[in-house]
């Protein structure tokens, strides 16, 4: 059975967390207003659709960051001595009964050194292998890019994407982006830099979006409770 591509798996995880976050937010809103809970399926569908559309670009962004600035570099190359060709003696018997000995060289397989090194580095970087070492400079580059360029693009994408799904006009979207982007980014800096550091240093690449989505559920619950004074 073919395995699910990582980008599809990440999208499915984000959909689950997004739906969970929206349902919890709706329940908290009903509780704060002292009203019976009634699931708003339209709002839920909008959040799920936004997750489906936004997760693949985020996955590719994280993949580019990891490939461009590997967070973990391979350990020192092995000191295992190079395997030299070995001389072997083969004995053949002809149809007339004559015994013939021939010496041949047995060569070990020799994969491309560059290809082998690249594969090892990619695997160790993306899985945070114990045999790899944290690259502090690359991690700092990723952190700065993710908290500046990434934060800006994600915030604008969230405001514009969700607004478009809600049927807002281009003028309304432009006004919302100008009004809400900076406050939303500043509010996010209370939590997301720490999440980013943990993600880049401790969480393997394939689980980073899921980790971020899980934290996002808790962050949404916290904001809802704080807004209601509970």
Shape: elongated
Proportion of residues in extended strands? 5-15%
Mean pLDDT over the residues: 81
Low-confidence stretches: none
Q: How many β-strands, per DSSP?
A: 4
Structural class: mainly alpha
Q: First CA to last CA: what distance?
A: 49 Å
Biggest sheet statistics: 2 strands, antiparallel
* Run of helices and strands: HHEEEHEHHHH
- Work out the helix count: 7
Widest beta sheet: strand line-up: 1-4
- Radius of gyration (CA) equals 27 Å
Summarize the helices and strands and which ones pair or pack.
Elements: H1 6-32, H2 41-68, E1 72-73, E2 86-93, E3 99-106, H3 113-127, E4 133-134, H4 136-165, H5 170-188, H6 192-202, H7 208-228
Antiparallel strand pairs: 1-4, 2-3
Helix pairs in contact: 1-2, 1-7, 2-4, 4-5, 4-6, 6-7
Structure notes:
The chain is built from seven helices and four strands, in the order H-H-E-E-E-H-E-H-H-H-H. Strand 2 and strand 3 form a beta hairpin.
Would you summarize the structure shown here?
By secondary structure, the chain is mainly α. The protein contains 7 helices and 4 strands, in the order H-H-E-E-E-H-E-H-H-H-H.
List keywords for this structure.
mainly alpha, two-stranded antiparallel ribbon, 7 helices
């Amino acid at each position: 059975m073919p395995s699910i591509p990582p980008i599809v798996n990440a999208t499915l995880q984000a959909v689950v967390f997004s739906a969970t976050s929206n349902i919890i937010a709706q329940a908290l809103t009903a509780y704060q207003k002292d009203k019976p809970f009634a699931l708003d399926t339209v709002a839920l569908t909008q959040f799920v659709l936004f997750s489906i559309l936004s997760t693949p670009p985020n996955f590719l962004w994280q993949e580019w960051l990891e490939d461009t600035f590997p967070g973990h570099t391979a350990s020192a190359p092995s000191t295992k001595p190079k395997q030299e060709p070995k001389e072997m003696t083969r004995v053949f018997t002809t149809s007339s009964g004559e015994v013939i000995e021939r010496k041949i060289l047995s060569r070990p397989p020799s994969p491309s050194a560059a290809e082998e090194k690249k594969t090892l580095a990619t695997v160790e970087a993306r899985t945070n292998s114990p045999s790899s070492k944290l690259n502090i400079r690359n991690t700092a580059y990723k952190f700065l890019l993710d908290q500046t360029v990434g934060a800006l693009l994600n915030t604008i994408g969230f405001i514009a994407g969700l607004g478009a799904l809600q049927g807002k006009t281009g003028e309304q979207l432009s006004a919302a982006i100008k009004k809400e982007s900076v406050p939303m980014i500043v509010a996010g800096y209370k939590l997301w830099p720490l999440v980013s550091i943990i993600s880049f240093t401790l969480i393997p690449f394939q689980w980073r979006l899921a980790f971020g989505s899980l934290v996002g559920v808790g962050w949404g619950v916290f904001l809802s409770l704080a807004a209601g004074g509970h």
